[in-house]
Design a protein that fits this description.
- The protein is of the alpha/beta class.
- It has 2 domains: 172 residues, Rossmann fold; 200 residues, Dehydroquinate synthase-like - alpha domain (Dehydroquinate synthase-like, alpha domain), CATH 1.20.1090.
- 49% of the residues lie in helices and 11% in strands.
- It is built from 15 helices and 9 strands.
- It has a 6-stranded parallel β-sheet with strand order 1-9-6-4-2-3, with helices on both faces. It has a 3-stranded mixed β-sheet with strand order 5-8-7.
- Helix 4 crosses helix 5.
Length: 394
């Protein structure tokens, strides 16, 4: 089978001390005035100072917009407020400095400078028609891969459901991935963001949109994150672990951007919107139940997934190798104190399954990539399975 496919990526600066490239990259974009969007934690750290020092080194005028929010995902109004600030200040480049949500706000704030209306007008696929002001994304966690993707996730404050803006016009101009910026990241954040990155590699690997390039990058990202998430969780100062987690996260973002997530993310959105748990935690609670439900479609891919996670599947049938992959996921989650089912995340009301299933099924942008065609009742069954602890065979 001969595939034709696009592969989209920003210019990437990767490695220790690449934060020093911020000023030069902004200068290349033809700007002398930049808005830095960040969060309160980063604003109090030396990370912001490193970023602004690089801007000053190229005589670039800048201002800092410090975000505040009371939910894990930003509300739609936050991007609109940041865009207003950018417009009134006539900033030529928008810089996102922080975790995935900060980067999402920066992307959308830029887009709203050249596209009319509000954030919710652009929920869905390819609704942003014009590129905004140039953007530079600088992640401070190893998780979402948002620095290299065309996606921005928000909490729709009207429906209390997480929704996505997914448009090529949101793809950043430059991604600066400096592993030193994630040094000292707390264990819980390391774990939840790290597993998010793992899922961003594994789920697109199972997508209908997978291709040879995303397969190669995805499997390598799975290998890297499986190997290094534990050490990064155990010691936030481990430079080698931080380096490889930053690399794995960036690679998984490339896979996500070009093949896309599917069932796990579609089913996580209603949970995150209702319970406001961290994105990585809501994904973990349903991960094994979701993957178990699609083995029937792609057992050979589950076998390769098990191998990428370092498991020995020699002599096993595809079904047996698939079970090994599920057990490896269970072990990875448990090793970094993440939930393996919804009750582990403090979500115990199984009656919610009937409420969430139609909302998840409505996420057609995601579910059209799923390798198994699922009805609303199928999705409700998967939710109910996620309330049951898995009996690990490892």
């Amino acid at each position: 089978m001969f595939q034709s496919f696009p592969f989209n990526t920003p210019l990437i600066q990767f490695g220790f001390d690449t934060i020093k490239q911020l000023g030069p990259e902004v200068e290349k974009l033809g700007s002398k005035r930049a808005l830095v969007i960040t969060g309160p934690t980063i604003a109090k750290s030396d990370i912001l100072e490193k970023a602004t020092a690089s801007l000053k080194s190229r005589s670039i005028d800048f201002d800092v917009n410090i975000q505040g929010r009371d939910t894990p995902e930003p509300g739609t109004h936050i991007a609109e407020e940041s865009s207003r600030i950018a417009k009134e200040g006539n900033f030529e480049v928008i810089i996102g400095l922080g975790g995935g949500s900060i980067l999402d706000v920066a992307k959308m704030a830029s887009a709203l400078l050249t596209n009319p209306g509000k954030t919710r007008d652009y929920f869905g696929k390819e609704k942003v028609t014009k590129r905004g002001r140039p953007t530079v994304m600088i992640p401070t966690t190893s998780g979402t891969g948002a620095e290299v993707t065309k996606h921005a996730i928000f909490l729709d404050t009207e429906t209390h459901v997480k929704k996505a803006v997914a448009s090529n016009a949101l793809l950043p101009n430059v991604a600066i991935v400096d592993p030193s910026l994630s040094v000292g990241c707390p264990p819980a954040v390391t774990a939840s963001s790290g597993i998010d990155a793992w899922i961003h590699a594994a789920e697109p690997y199972m997508s209908k949109n997978a291709n040879p390039v995303t397969d190669a990058i995805g499997l390598e990202a799975i290998r890297i994150i499986t190997r290094w998430l534990g050490p990064a969780f155990a010691d936030g100062e481990d430079l080698e672990a931080r380096y490889y987690m930053s690399l794995g996260s960036m690679m998984s973002g490339l896979v996500l951007n070009n093949s896309g997530t599917s069932l796990v993310h579609a089913m996580a959105y209603p949970i995150g919107g209702e319970y406001h748990v961290p994105h990585g935690v809501s994904l973990c609670g349903i991960l094994i139940a979701c993957f178990e439900s699609i083995i029937v479609a792609k057992p050979e891919r589950f076998a390769r997934l098990a191998e990428a996670m370092g498991e020995n599947i020699e002599g096993l049938s595809l079904r047996e190798a698939s079970e090994v992959a599920l057990d490896a996921m269970y072990h990875l989650l448990r090793s970094v104190r993440l939930p393996v089912c919804l009750p582990d995340a403090g979500i115990t009301d199984e009656s919610k399954a009937a409420k969430w299933a139609p909302d998840a099924h409505a996420e057609r942008r995601l579910l059209t990539r799923c390798v198994r065609n699922l009805s609303v009742s199928d999705i409700e069954e998967i939710y109910r399975n996620a309330f049951k602890p898995r009996e690990c065979m490892c």
